[in-house]
Amino acid sequence: MRRALAFRLALAFPSCLLALAFLACGRSEQANEEGAAAGRAASPAPSAAAPAPWEVPADFEPVPIPADNPMTLAKVQLGRKLYFDPRLSGDGKLACYTCHVCEHGLTDGRPTAVGAFGKTITRSAPTMWNVGYHDSLYWDGRSPTLEKQAVAAWKGANMGAKPDSVVTALQNDPDYARAFQEVFGGPMSVDHAGMALAAYMRTILCVDTPQDRALRGDATALDAAARRGKELFYGKARCGACHLGNLFTDLKYHNVGIGKPDADPGRFKVSQNPRDTGAFKTPTLRDVTRSAPYFHDGSVATLEEAVDIMAGGGIANPHLDPLLQDNKVTAAEKSDLIAFLHALTCPCDSQALSLAPR
């Protein structure tokens, strides 16, 4: 069995280690403080002395790593520096972490995100937990890779930046110049920044929740209510039909009746398949108790309301996914379901995101 705790990596970062941005929300002060302070291939085997931060316990599949962007520790360190740097946003106020903060389950706690220059984004900021496993990004899956998503968000309304101009400015930063030379063998570029960001994001892992510990044999990890809720989750309530596996998502697209398809057609805009009208990617339920408000438009304020909607079969509309059914879950059973969802909470430390014990 591979080391179940190989992800407990303590990295020594230089004092300048914090800086970048690609999604936008209003928590700019915290991001600025952090910014100022600082084909698929198998994961490379880490050394015994320094396990790699993209390593996961044996009960998880290895994080998929593209052949054209192999993982190295130096690349991850560079990506982390970029991830917390507000200088990459158009207004110099927003970092990636601004929209994906620990206390909100790596979302921003807003119904919909707020981009650079205060621009309102039409969808909510999704959580970043385990995003390295996703085969498409955004609520509608329009981006096929993390690398492309990072650059698209940088150029788009989220960050509102001109990446070429940002690269020119940051290349004058000796720490960045030295790091890009070390990692990529040349000066900073937009594509290389996206690759470094993607490498870091593949280390943002939630693999040690109470539910994970229960599956590994810890009989005390779940209390009685959570155990009852787990049985409901995979049984009567049928939550596990879409929120499945270790990721608690099938990574597919479903219409559950949230939102107005005329205003936001969801996956249909990408696939042009009428069956995808109003369909959005199944969100992971890891850290769901901290990631309110819920759904792609942030229209549901509480977890209790979200459970009511989903357990009740969604909201009727012409494109409702047939998987959605009213499973007649009682109030007491909903309480137990929520107890189980609390057992999916992810340890998170914003000062060492993805590097602290998970």
Summarize the structure.
With 358 residues, this protein is mostly helical. The chain has eleven helices and four strands.
Description:
This protein is mainly alpha-helical. The protein contains eleven helices and four strands, in the order H-E-E-H-H-H-H-H-H-H-E-H-E-H-H. Strands 1-2 form a two-stranded antiparallel sheet. Strands 3-4 form a two-stranded antiparallel sheet.
Helix content: 25-40%
Largest sheet: 2 strands, antiparallel
Q: State the low-pLDDT regions, or none.
A: 1-48
Instruction: Kindly report the average pLDDT value.
Output: 87
Assess the beta-strand content as a share of residues. Answer: under 5%
Shape annotation: globular
The CATH superfamily of the largest domain turns out to be Cytochrome c-like domain
Which structural class do the helices and strands define? mainly alpha
Order of helices and strands: HEEHHHHHHHEHEHH
CATH topology of the largest domain: Cytochrome Bc1 Complex, Chain D, domain 2
Ends distance: 18 Å
Number of strands: 4
Please give the domain count. 2
Highest-level CATH class of the largest domain: Mainly Alpha
- Strand arrangement across the biggest beta sheet: 1-2
Tally of alpha and pi helices: 11
CATH architecture of the largest domain: Orthogonal Bundle
Spatial extent as radius of gyration:
20 Å
Topology:
Layout: H1 28-36, E1 40-41, E2 65-66, H2 73-83, H3 146-155, H4 163-170, H5 174-184, H6 190-201, H7 210-215, H8 224-234, E3 253-254, H9 268-271, E4 280-281, H10 303-311, H11 331-342
Antiparallel strand pairs: 1-2, 3-4
